[in-house]
Design a protein that fits this description.
This protein is α+β, with helices and mostly antiparallel strands. It contains 11 helices and 10 strands.
Length: 379
């Protein structure tokens, strides 16, 4: 058993940490305020070869592993969680389904632009009436000749404004009274396809979160992704990988909150001593550090299992659940340690808490993760 990062992992971490510190972090407060999407940052990430990191070099990727993806997502989220979630969704929700289930022709046409950064990756699953109950999908795709004609809507879709195409789930028929749900690749510039970007969010303000309205959108049947009727199974596999990304994001946010709290506690004096000299502060910081280390280990284990080709669904849910909940806890404690200053935007810790909350909700709520884990352990 070896807990050391490989030389390649260490090099990736060093590179992305420097980039995050020098390029991503300086504008994070301003982007949170203005809600400006970090387009230039993603152009630079594309130039660095990060946008196709875990995908095959054959399609313009870097051929790296899931652990590398987790490291990059953590470091970006540590600097700016809006940048982190954009990257995580691009890889795990946008690129992964194409890599896993696409035909050779589909990969050349749709995965290559994702790997090069020409298009951001997105995935259309959630609907106004289908959140935790993803099987409640109401979007339909009816056959007309050699085409699918798609109607419906999607909610809370990340990156769609900057995606040239995305895979979405739709009902393609009924079988024994049950919905036959399939995944279909749809160009975002298709007639009848509208992307609406007007959500007012609690956090992650510089990320792109959209509603999709799909009215009589016609695509060829060759745009079917994977097997017909397998859409539900395919997105469950996709979400397993995505949960590693959410876990890595959570670790990054928690680490950022901890770093701020530790620094502040060493500088702030009350009653003639720095806060870090009080045992109550030391205990708080010790607990925060321990939980972050545990969460990171869980994320890396889930990523490692995935890279070994072994089952990782249980571990992905565990790392997502634990990391997201400790991210909220650590951010809360960081604010508390800052006192009144923690409530002020310039000290950043309040942003960490606003950003972290989504991680307990997106890609399966904490309640859903507990259901998944319970199923895995044989309940």
């Amino acid at each position: 058993m070896n807990f050391d990062l490989t030389q390649e992992h260490q090099m990736i971490r060093k590179t992305i940490r420097e980039f995050a510190s020098e390029v991503v972090a300086p504008g994070a407060i301003e982007r949170d305020k203005t809600k400006e999407f970090p387009k230039e940052i993603f152009k630079q990430l594309a130039d660095m070869g990060m946008m196709g990191l875990p995908f095959s070099e054959e399609y313009g990727g870097a051929g790296a592993d899931t652990v590398s993806f987790a490291i990059v997502t953590e470091e970006l989220s540590r600097a700016c969680a809006s940048t982190g979630i954009t990257y995580s969704a691009h890889i795990s929700l946008g690129g992964a389904p194409l890599s896993l289930f696409g035909t050779e022709e589909q990969k050349q046409k749709y995965l290559v632009p994702i790997c090069t950064g020409e298009s951001l990756g997105a995935f259309g699953l959630t609907e106004p009436n289908a959140g935790s109950d993803a099987g409640g999908t109401q979007t339909t795709a009816k056959e007309e000749g050699n085409d699918f004609v798609i109607n419906g809507s999607k909610a809370f879709i990340t990156n769609a404004s900057y995606a040239k195409h995305l895979a979405l789930t739709a009902i393609t028929g009924m079988s024994d009274g049950k919905k036959e749900i399939s995944a279909i690749i749809v160009p975002t510039d298709a007639d009848g396809f509208t992307v609406i970007d007007n959500y007012e969010k609690m956090g992650l303000n510089a990320s792109n979160t959209t509603e999709l309205v799909i009215e009589n959108v016609r695509v060829p049947q060759e745009n079917l992704l994977g097997k017909r009727g397998n859409g539900f199974r395919q997105f469950l596999v996709t979400l397993d990988g995505g949960r590693i990304g959410i876990g890595a994001m959570a670790v990054g946010i928690a680490q950022a909150a901890f770093d701020r709290a530790l620094q502040y506690s060493k500088e702030r004096k009350q009653f003639g001593k720095t806060l870090s000299e009080f045992q109550i502060t030391q205990f708080k910081l010790a607990d925060m550090a321990m939980k972050i280390e545990l969460a990171r280990t869980m994320v890396h284990k889930a990523a490692w299992l995935k890279d070994q080709g072994r089952p990782f669904g249980k571990e992905a849910s565990m790392c997502k659940l634990y990391a997201s909940e400790i991210a909220m806890e650590v951010a809360d404690q960081a604010i508390q340690l800052h006192g009144g200053y923690g409530y002020m935007k310039e000290y950043e810790v309040e942003r960490y808490m606003r950003d972290a909350k989504l991680l307990e909700i997106g890609e399966g709520t904490s309640e859903v993760q507990r259901m998944v884990i319970a199923r895995h352990i044989g309940c």
